[in-house]
Amino acid sequence: MRTQMTAVLAALFLFSLTAVAAIAADKTLPTVLDGFTIEKAAASPLVKHPLMAGFDDRGRLFVAESAGKNLRADDLLKELPNFVRMLEDTNGDGVFDKSTIFADKMTLPMGALWYRGALYVAAPPSIWKLEDTDDDGVADKRTELVDKFGFSGNAASVHGCFLGPSGRIYWCDGRHGFEFADGRKGKASGIFSCRPDGSDVQVFAAGGMDNPVEVDFLPTGEMFGTANIMLNPRGDTLVHWMDGGAYPRHDQGNVTAELKKTGGLLPPMTNLGHVAVSGMMRYRSDQFGPQFQNNIFISIFNTHKIIRSVLERSGSTFQSREEDFLVSKNNDFHPTDVLEDADGSLLVIDTGGWFRIGCPTSQVAKPQIHGAIYRIRRKGAHKIDDPRGLKLQLEKQPPAVLVKHLNDSRPIVRNRAIDLLALAERAAVPALTTALNSDNDTTRRNAVWAASRMSSAPVDRLLRTGLTDKTEGVKLAAARSFGAVGSADSASLGLLAQLTVSGSPALRREAATALGHVGIKGRALNANDAKTVLESLFGGIRGSVADRYMEHALIYAIIRIDDGAGTAEFLRDPNPQVRRAALIALDQMDGGNLTREQVVPLLDTDDPALQQETLRIIGSREGWATETLSLLRGWLQENKLSQEREAALRGFLLAQSKDRGIQRLVADALNRPGAPLALRLLLLDVIYRAPVTELSDIVVAALQRAILLGSPEVRLQAIRVIHDRGLESFDRQLRRMAGEPQQLVDVRVEALAAIASRIDAISDTEFRFLLARLDEDVEPLSRLAAAQALADAPLDSAQLLKVSDTFETAGPLAVPVLVRAFGRSTSEKVGLALVESLNGSDASVNVSADELSKLLGTYPPKVQATGRELLKKLGVNLEEQKARLTELAPLGAGGDAEHGRQVFFGKKAACANCHTVAALGGKVGPDLSAIGKIRNGGDLIEAIAFPSSSFARGFRSYTILTEQGKVHTGIISRQSADTVYLRTAELAEIRIARGDIEEMREAKTSVMPKGLDKTLSADELRDLIAYLRSRK
After folding, report:
1. pLDDT at 1004 (0 to 100)
2. What pTM value is reported for the model?
């Protein structure tokens, strides 16, 4: 921990009443739900680009604010341009009229929590505690509580902080990695917490999602939050965060591999679509009416709205239903946070138009468009006297008085009473004991939370009373509090054990979580208590398991306890669910030490879940695979595999692909007469993706048989394997196949592509065949394969001249590939023809300027001189971009959506090769099924005309240089511990061993081809835009 004592100069901005009057007169307000009013509470010049905010005990609003700059991490650390602003409403009319800078020179503060006299702020790479020791409105003491968290710039960094009901400080972090002073480190994003002094840093939940943003808690302590890009295709989500939970994305296997898992990754509660969720909160007051209490309000950046989520219990978790609460038609209105004021009104923060890097709706930053803070009230709401309870002077009251405010109608007063009772420690125990016998449910529940925050008072008896309460809410708070405290006496353990087996689904979940914390290895439990804890957890599994969340809580508690010997005894339990839980726990716990002798017998079961889990674990152990051969042979004889069995089979075969017995099994199944087509393609995919350096002779022989006797689909896939693996032994056979007219055209093209780089010359017949496949009427994927073959083939000058003649029709996908064919020539005539053809082709804008510059550098001076204007044209010119957008703007309205659908799925635009609509199309780019909900015509035109101007997170391109000198650019489609898979602009997936990577960097260009706005006619583009706008 590092402490800085700084005297920071503050600039005080006091604004006249004319500025306030201007705010009140503003007519450009968002629309709110019927029965509510909205007004501006602060705007420029008081505040310009607010992000997140929080109140202190006095009602001062601390605003994490951006200076309006889009900067990368290095520049943020160098410039420190951002700050925390403090707004005050000096006359109590609900409109802020005073603005000062509380803390300047920060990277990018993303939250503000006032707790016990200090402001807790997440600003990468650290969590900060800011204090104003002389009460002059300026932070003069900065304590770096927790570091370090990785960050790339403005997006997906740390957010927070947030106060948990047990007094811990929580924050969220994006997927940029972390490393703590105690040596712990990881790559996963997640929810973190610590004590207010920065000690005892814990990871509450983690996963592969890009960007968890904010969290809040129900009165029972259950945690919810917003997270971006948790699903793939992109899904931005509302999540019920589980203690110890491992969450998606599923394509981030190298990240989720570091997490302890209790089965599959936990799903989000609600998928809100590709909308860019931001700040959220639980509504506490009664001002909006009882139907709004405990609703979740979420700010949605892309769709310019605030939505209301109504939670309903479902099993041990929740489900939600959403409705719009605030909607703005202003495309530059970007809400980033929503929070509750003490009087029950809502504040909505609009950051304005500055934000571009990360996930913007616009690809052009607009820092000149300032944001604002809005206040929403219910019409007819009653006025609350002293909403913060300042007149009560609670800090001077004894515990006997404080407990009377545990059920105060004012949320701020309730929370203050809870914390002051906790600070009173032992002196508050008698009053809390009385409160726990109150007739009021809220009083009893909040007495539990006060006890859970105590650090030195004995609280077991208080919390145990909560476990026996008549209401479930108090019981849930008590169970969660035992987990937070981390200890329990024998009587309390007995109650928790009973609730694990016989409580409601939610209580069973929370009791299991508490037992996991209390029973952690190394904590002082006697033998009987330890046995009670473990038996109750497995008893919970033996009973009915309501859902995945309850299953997770039970198994994770067993993992956390880390009693390998005790857990192993349950591998012999007659209940297959119990055996499976014990198997998962032993596999994941630090002291599990699973042996082959323990695991292999578990294959002898009719329970598919146990069987699949056993296969997964065997598949992860080297040398264990032979035990599974008889089972797998039976599966491979089936005419049709279930989806679950197919997934288990694929995963196991890939994991054990280095085992020679498994290789023989795959080869035999591939060659089996009558084997279903789907099975053969699955097996070929396993061979293609297998993480082995060389294919064995067994598998090579199977490939030989597949290209001789297989169906056209099997032949094509087998040739792709041969191509990918560079198997030269097939060259003669593939060249013969390429010349056979009876073969499928795609088979012939792929065959030539597989051998092109190794032949001495390409025949005139072969060349004309490939050249014909560049015609614009040919399917784009086939066109690309032909282009790749020509790019790799040893073409002579005459052939290269003919290739250059195709640039006008080959299209934006193929031309950049064809250009590479010219890298083996130094002929002036060829070079001049290349430059001339590129100058005359709209597709030339897709060619990398850097790559072309290097290529032209090998040609004579005249070619280089002629190419300078072309290279200049390939550079980015912002003024030209703006002019082009203005020119295209009329195409964003009108149009024939039905014809636009034909354009989307047609050969000319080839959008469906990369994008999915309604389950049809490719998976390279974002799913566009509901793009009309979040993009208007102008947004869509911008994305089509300038796809590389900005990247949606999750679809950024990377350039990888290997130790062999090869350069690959594409989107990372999936990763494993030792392999990275890139999806390239040619729509191919390239496998790169991590050990072969010399350098990896973000690419400057998107894999989406530029120039589609020129390839299509104006009518076609207008219709395409109309179709995309209709997808809602």
Report:
1. 56
2. 0.81
